[in-house]
Design brief:
The protein is an alpha+beta fold. It is 49% helix and 18% strand. It is built from 28 helices and 31 strands.
């Protein structure tokens, strides 16, 4: 090529297409040109080199060297070659300099590496007039195309770089536009999965973008770390699916038609061929292209698209916006035709994306027009729905008022039947009546929600806002809802710091808000946890209710706060009518806050309630009132007690209250629990004239600690307390004490039936609502403490009674032993009579009805009993005493002797050879341990587990259950029993120090 006399700066690019010199099956370098033995062959560029490889060559596999001499004026600036496409690996050498390579050229397929992509080869040598271009190429992948398959351009480096930048830049700009539109379509599809056309648009734009990156300059190999084979597979797969996706999108937009049987068959065949492309090597893919299979898959949807456009053009359309679809269709057809015509980039140097952009604009314009049309139609429908919704609310409100009275009548009649006829009803009938009561209460709650909705809409709910400690409200709600997680692997917890400031809210409505949120979370959580937490942020309190339930989709989140909305089918439990969350949101907004939600399907939900904090003035006022109450406790107590009495009692002349006596001289210890010091001070004032010793604590945990260390006759607890509610405290108490061993009286300002039911179900003996009437409180406390003292007395009398019931066979056997010894050993007979007399005297001693006796008194009874049994059974019973000196303590009467008697009768004497019983009394840290051990037959696990049950088994002596119960009442812990079958049994208990014990005695 002679370019002398041409100004390379102003001449643009030169196509160096035409005949090149070609050296088949030889790699020629610049230094080999002078010694080449044979002349080269002329070969047209671009084109396939198969004919130049030899007559017997049946494929385009092979390697060779292209040569071109370019004559120029002496170079003053750099020049460059722009190579568009070479199959399948190549390197460029100019005047002996290796200036560029793609892949690795080699003599065989094992060592060569294919890479077909566009690249530049710049060159500069001052005053050069002859440019000797040598291009080495190798192809062992494409059986029908080998060598230079695209145009080669030459020009100044500046001009080549400029045009290359435009070509690549326009392609990348179009790819970015396509990917953005595809991303928008996919995002919109995620929001509305029913609109499948959006998903098809996303796939269509993705396929077109891949084709653009894989066409002329094959940029897909530049940006993705894939090999030649996979770039070919990706390009061809995208090319096959592009036309089908365009057809499907167009059909969706025009007629909304689905997939008919012909289209379904075509898609199935295309899927099979796509799988074939992804599996087989590159050579088989090229063979299928050569046979025209790809062209068939390309032309079928293309012709189908033209047919659809023709029908759309000539068919009368009511939709005027179809012109935008016609514009898009025309642009798509133009792009496809041009792509077929200029497949290798031989007719255009720079890619101009005008047709693709026109198609996108057409589709977008059609979408927007349809959106605005639908939005206008939706506005009109919304107005109609609002009117219908208002009529519906009025109807439901009127219906609720009318249903409320007969519903309550049904519920009360059912409750009366269950109460009066409980003994005469069949079990199935009783369960049916209880189910009827439960359903009635649920319906009553629904009617209440309906009335609340109407009140909120008519602005008839007035809030009584005051500073409220949220950490005291939540535990009570958690306790009320514990029944919902029974039998489910769900934990219900609270995580609110004690330092959380007060919120400005109506306490009753705040309880309703949190109750509904937690109830909703439990309703849709089958396993995991539900947690209520709170934090302070920008002068507001954020209350979070977090669950690990089923979660919600974005569609559900958008509707969840609407009235009468519930969870999707298959999740809802059939209860409620979907008003709880709607009421919560409106109540929160009445407080000046907001209610929001975060949720994902399968990952749970977080409801966040934003409420204003009480201002500093309100909090300081509350603190100052508390301080004043503590400082002037006595005066405030008297005034408050007098005010309560004068308010509720008749105006007749005051007379002394006929409070019944307690019939005991011992102290009655009452433990009062409330997080509000004002309430504790008022309670102490009301009971100041009563014979009680009141200990007040401000948390449930402190109350539990005191229960472990001291003896109490009554627990008075508030329901709403931080960390642990009164309900939960009562449940923990009932794990250790029965209703008679430690009565519990709950105090709360909440008087709803659900609160009272929860209190009694938790194990409370009585329930009093605030404000408390002084006379009522005193009588209720007197009744509970009297019951507790009577129970203690019954347990002590039971122990003494059981001891006094000496079994006849024990009496007869002892007398027989005395009679037998009268003839054998008079001295031993006298000792046995003395021991028997001591045993009887102590058994019938009035001290046994008391609360505590000395250790020596108890050991004397044990010694007498063991002496009698050793005399009777001789060598079968051995006794070992290990009693540390100087141990002088008081302990419950008849607490050691039952253990020894049980060891002898059921442990040693059940074996023919007998055994040894060991009594060990040792001093521990601030306590004394008493242990009775035998090496008898022992017990199995089942017998051991039922040994301490409060039954009257073994009426001939003191039951272990009685002893264990009395120890638990006095010291908070009872007997510890360890036993193994055929090895023996060890029974022990611990008595606190004498100082601690005397501190508890009157």
């Amino acid at each position: 090529m002679d370019l002398r006399g041409r100004n390379l700066e102003d001449s643009g690019l030169f196509r160096v297409d035409g005949e090149w010199s070609f050296y088949p099956s030889r790699f020629v370098s610049y230094k080999d040109l002078s010694s080449l033995p044979s002349a080269s062959l002329p070969l047209k560029v671009p084109g396939d080199w198969k004919r130049a490889m030899g007559n017997d060559q049946t494929s385009s596999y092979g390697y060779g060297t292209y040569r071109l001499r370019i004559l120029v004026d002496p170079l003053q600036q750099p020049v460059s070659l722009w190579i568009k496409q070479i199959h399948s690996a190549s390197s460029v050498e100019i005047n002996g300099e290796l200036l560029g390579a793609k892949g690795r050229v080699a003599l065989d397929a094992k060592t060569y590496k294919p890479k077909t992509t566009s690249y530049l080869s710049p060159y500069f040598s001052d005053e050069t007039t002859v440019i000797e271009v040598l291009i080495q190429a190798a192809n062992f992948d494409h059986p029908y195309k080998g060598g230079i398959g695209g145009s080669v351009f030459f020009g100044s480096q500046q001009e080549v770089n400029r045009i290359y930048f435009y070509a690549v830049g326009f392609q990348m700009l179009t790819v970015v536009i396509l990917l953005l539109h595809g991303l928008y379509a996919c995002i919109l599809y995620l929001f509305n999965s029913k609109e499948r056309a959006l998903f098809l648009v996303g796939l269509m734009t993705l396929s077109v973008a891949i084709i653009l990156m894989a066409r002329n300059d094959n940029l897909i190999l530049t940006f993705l770390a894939i090999n030649y084979t996979w770039s070919m597979k990706i390009r061809l797969t995208a090319f096959l699916w592009q036309n089908l996706l365009i057809l499907l999108v167009f059909r969706r937009f025009t007629s909304g038609a689905g997939i008919n049987k012909w289209l379904r068959a075509y898609i199935q065949i295309l899927c099979l061929y796509s799988a074939f492309i992804l599996i087989v090597p590159a050579s088989l893919i090229s063979t299928s292209i050569h046979w025209g299979i790809v062209q068939v898959f390309q032309y079928v949807p293309f012709i189908w698209l033209i047919y659809s456009l023709g029908r759309l053009l000539f068919k009368k359309q009511a939709d005027k916006d179809v012109v935008y679809l016609l514009l898009s269709g025309a642009a798509i057809i133009s792009n496809l035709l041009w792509s077929l015509w200029d497949y290798n980039g031989q007719f255009s140097i720079v890619y101009y994306p005008l047709d693709i952009i026109a198609a996108i604009v057409g589709f977008s314009a059609y979408w927007f027009k349809q959106y605005f049309h639908n939005a206008k139609e939706n506005m009109e429908l919304n107005e109609q729905l609002k009117k219908a919704d208002k009529l519906k609310d009025q109807f439901l409100a009127n219906t609720s008022h009318e249903l409320r009275t007969p519903l309550h009548g049904i519920m009360h009649i059912a409750e009366n039947i269950v109460t009066k006829e409980k003994g005469r009803l069949y079990e199935s009938s009783r369960k049916d009546m209880e189910l009827l009561i439960t359903i009635s209460r649920r319906m009553s709650h629904m009617l209440g929600d309906l009335l609340d909705v109407v009140r909120l809409q008519e602005h008839r709910i007035i809030l009584k806002q005051e500073p409220v400690p949220i950490q005291s409200v939540v535990p009570g709600i958690i306790s009320m809802l514990q029944h919902m997680i029974e039998g489910k692997p769900v934990t219900l917890s609270m995580d609110i710091p004690e330092s959380m400031p007060l919120v400005l809210a109506d306490e009753q409505r705040l309880v309703q808000i949190v109750f509904n949120l937690v109830h909703n979370a439990l309703k849709y959580t089958e396993e995991g946890r539900v947690c209520v937490s709170a934090e302070e942020r920008n002068g507001h309190a954020l209350i979070h209710v977090t669950d690990t339930g089923v979660g919600m989709t974005q569609e559900t989140i958008a509707r969840v706060f609407l009235p009468y909305e519930q969870g999707p089918h298959g999740i809802r439990d059939g209860r409620g009518i979907g008003l709880g969350l709607s009421i919560c949101r409106q109540l929160v907004e009445l407080h000046g806050g907001s209610l929001s939600i975060q949720s994902e399907p399968g990952k749970g939900s977080v409801f966040s309630c934003d409420l204003p904090l009480a201002d500093s003035f309100s909090q300081q006022m509350v603190l100052s009132q508390t301080s004043a109450t503590v400082e002037n406790a006595d005066a405030i107590h008297k005034q408050l007690a007098e005010w309560r009495l004068s308010e509720d009692q008749p105006s007749s002349p005051a007379i002394p209250e006929p409070i019944p006596p307690l019939f005991t001289d011992s102290k009655v210890n009452i433990l009062a629990v409330d997080d509000d010091p004002v309430n504790l001070s008022v309670l102490k004032g009301m009971l100041a004239s009563e014979p009680y010793v009141i200990t007040a604590v401000n948390s449930a945990q402190k109350a539990l600690d005191l229960l472990n260390n001291q003896k109490w006759d009554l627990l008075i607890g508030d329901v709403m307390m931080p960390q642990m509610s009164g309900y939960e405290l009562t449940q923990k108490v009932r794990m250790r004490y029965s209703l008679y061993e430690l009565p519990v009286l709950l105090l709360t300002a909440r008087s709803q039936p659900a609160d009272i039911y929860t209190g009694f179900l938790a194990g409370a003996n009585d329930y009093v609502t605030k404000p408390v009437d002084a006379m009522e409180l005193k009588y209720r406390i007197r009744a509970l403490t009297t019951m507790k003292l009577a129970f203690n007395e019954r347990v002590r009398i039971e122990a003494a009674y059981l001891q006094a019931q000496i079994q006849p066979h024990f009496l007869f056997n002892t007398l027989n032993s005395i009679s037998a010894l009268s003839d054998l050993d008079t001295k031993k007979m006298q000792e046995l009579i003395a021991a028997f007399t001591s045993y009887l005297r102590i058994s019938f001693d009035f001290l046994n009805t008391g609360e505590l006796v000395s250790l020596s008194h108890e050991l004397e009874l044990v010694e007498s009993y063991l002496y009698i049994e050793q005399t009777r059974f001789a060598e079968r019973i051995s006794v070992v005493w290990k009693v540390e000196p100087d141990i002088d303590i008081l302990l419950p009467p008849l607490s050691i002797q039952p253990l020894v008697e049980n060891a002898v009768k059921h442990g040693l004497l059940s074996r023919q050879q007998g055994g040894t019983v060991q009594i060990r009394i040792t001093r521990l840290h601030k306590s004394v341990q008493i242990e009775v051990q035998d090496n008898g037959q022992g017990m199995d696990h089942e017998t051991l587990s039922s040994l301490l049950k409060p039954t009257m088994e073994g009426k001939g002596g003191i039951g272990l259950a009685n002893t264990n119960r009395r120890l638990c009442q006095l010291y908070g812990q009872g007997l510890s029993i360890h036993s193994k079958h055929a090895e023996g049994t060890t029974v022990s208990f611990v008595i606190p120090d004498q100082e601690t014990l005397l501190h508890e005695l009157p």
